[in-house]
Amino acid sequence: MAHPPLKAVTLTHVRYRKGDQLGHFLAWVSLVPVFISFGGFVSHFIFRRELQGLFFAVGLLISQFISEVIKTSVQQARPATCALLEMCDSHGWPSSHSQYMFFFATYVTLLTIKGLGFREFTKKWVANLVTWSLAVLTMYSRVYLGYHSVAQVYAGATLGIVLGSSWFWVVNSLIFYYFPAIEESKFGRMFYLKDTSHINNVFKFEYDNARAARGNIASKSD
Question: Which of 52, 101, 107, 181 lies 20 to 30 angstroms, CA to CA, from 134?
Fold first, then answer.
């Protein structure tokens, strides 16, 4: 009895040429979306419960769903190197990795501008430079490692920017007004959901409140 061909789970399955140090580095760069998803957003939900962050994550999920729909519809093949990578059974246009990272970079930049204003934003250029550098490196890694063509990664990057800016507008122009209602809902209270985007300096606010709470506890114990 013939067995169907095996298929790998490609979430962290990234190949590079043995001995290629640049390829090794770019293989790790290619995994940045995985680190952001599981390390960043999961830990954010556990420790922060910020509505802005939660809707950011929802937008990334929607973006990836759209990417898969487009891939399935267009069915453009990957480059010829897909045979070595065992990826020829999947489609390459647009690049999901590029789309993810450029969505992420666009949303982070717009969120920074919204929270700080454009003049203050220029003072935070380092954080945004790192974000966009990772996006460009991820795009380059997918071509260098042979998973996508140049056209496929540019298509993913363009779609990521369009979807990232569009979702930012939806969240911060429409859904944003429902944040107080979500906070006060039974679901919001159960999971301690909150929005602190209206606070100028969240770190100072939390620091001052933590110190005040400690002072209150100390005064009651005296």
Answer: 52
CA–CA distances in Å: residue 50 to residues 41, 45, 100, 147? 10, 7, 21, 35
Distance separating alpha carbons of residues 52 and 59, to the nearest angstrom: 11
Q: With 0-12 CB in 10 A as exposed, 13-18 as middle and 19+ as buried, what is 160? A: buried
pTM: 0.83
How many CB atoms are closer than 10 A to CB 167?
Answer: 22
Helices 150-173 and 51-74: crossing angle in degrees, nearest 10, is: 140
> How many CA atoms, within 13 angstroms, populate the side-chain half-sphere of residue 24?
4
Give the CA distances from residue 23 to residues 28, 29, 91, 100, 177, in Å, rounded to whole numbers and listed in that order.
9, 10, 22, 21, 46
| Opening angle at CA 221, ends 217 and 222, nearest 5 | 120
At residue 174, the pLDDT reads 93
Q: What is the pLDDT of residue 216?
A: 76
pLDDT tens figures, 137-180: 999 999 988 888 999 999 999 999 999 999 999 999 999 999 99
Each residue's pLDDT tens digit, 180-220: 999 999 998 998 888 887 776 777 877 887 888 887 776 77
